[in-house]
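Q: What would this complex look like in 3D?
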Amino acid sequence: MPLRTSDIKSSDYVGKEVTIRGWVHRLRKQKENTFVLVRDDRGGVIQCIFPAEKVSNLTVESSVEVVGIVSQDSRAPEGGFEIKGKNLKVFNIAGIDYPIGEYQSDQLLLDKRHLALRTRRMIAIAKIRHSVLKFGRQWFIDNGWMEVTAPTIVKGAVEGGSTLFKLRYFDEDAYLSQSAQLYLEAMIFSLGPVWSLTPSFRAEKSRTVRHLAEFSHLEAEAPWVDLEDILRVQEELVSYIIQNTIAERKEELAFLKRDTSELKNVQVPFERLRYEKAIEILQSRGFGVEKEDGTKRSIVWGDDLNIDSERELTKNASKPIFVIGYPLEVKPFYVKEDPSRKGLGLAADMLAPQGFGEITSGGLREDDINSITSRIRKEGLDPAAYDWYLDLRKYGSVPHGGFGLGIERLMRWITNVEDIKDTVLFPRTMSRVSP
Ligand code: 4AD
Ligand code: MG
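A: Here is my prediction, written as structure tokens for the whole assembly.
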């Protein structure tokens, strides 16, 4: 079996013959020798040295198998190991016009993302993503939540009608799911605390560095919880994912030049900040919001928080902050009204520190059939599309709640990459459905 470069670097193979398979990452031709940097199928690289005439037709990204003797040389890149090549088998000679070199525009890297996945940067990001997903799942499994999956072709909006993707479903109209929430709510009656990881779709018409048209949504729902229970799940989940990911992905985060010392602070508990207090803080700092005509006015009670206000609130924080108790008007129909604070919802958003902004939304759900029906109407939605959902309030309704976490939002914070498009392997945005 061919080895990977990590095997060679971690065990004592010096002086021994090894076989590795991979792709030509870089080529440096000298008069007598050619230095071939081979990248294996997990992105590890090792320098292989061949007599120049033996590899004269080799090109970058050709797929190869190298047989050779391992030696240690402090001058060799990537940890001082190299392979003195004896045999080279070529699977495919790559075309000489491989479009990705050392420097290229962001646009090209997106247009050629199927090839850009072979860059060290994308490999590092993909590995961090793997860890984030793995530890997210692990937390739920370790804490006794049941994994479920919900359909992604649905009849109703969850997060407002304006970001729905409509599609023709045989002879009727349907939508791509914005959130699994309503289905998870149906499941708690027989399955208890449940969670799912599914794609969610939003026809986001704005081009921003934190919105995708398709994102990975980690959602959870449980019966008989109060708001504090739901906050505790989120802070434990997020700190567990972060602490384990920074431990497992030191090398990749270092490659991305992510300083992880501040991420080490991300331990429970996270601060809880009431919405009205958040507005007061923003007012005391003279924070303004943009009006439709482009002019500014002071932020007031009733305004939703946007990325600028979220940044202002978290700019000096080293841990996420929960903003709790938003006015019902800025939240969807399903948010439960706080019985002791009329007009306010038992809802919370988790804002990542240093301006990364919202990464989760959640809270308690309205469980009374009359209140939720009128809230559906108020939002301009058709209660008929929610008849099955309303059944949940008719037959054995219970207090319940949950939340949704955007994996790419969390990734953006953990990796500190500027654009959310770089936290996913094949991004979907308003202007991109390919590759
Ligand atoms: O805040 P949102 O819209 O809340 C819901 O969908 C709830 N139904 C979830 C629930 O309670 N089960 O979305 C939840 C999270 C956001 O906090 C954000 O992290 C992410 O999903 N998100 C997006 N991520 C990338 N691109 C977008 N366009 C996103 N929209 C939401
Ligand atoms: Mg939200």
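A: To summarize the key features: The chain has two domains: 5-92, 113-423. Residues 158-159, 178-179, 181, 202, 204, 211-212, 215, 217, 219, 358-362, 402-406, 408-409 surround 4AD (ligand 1) (CB under 6 Å).
Q: Very helpful, thank you.
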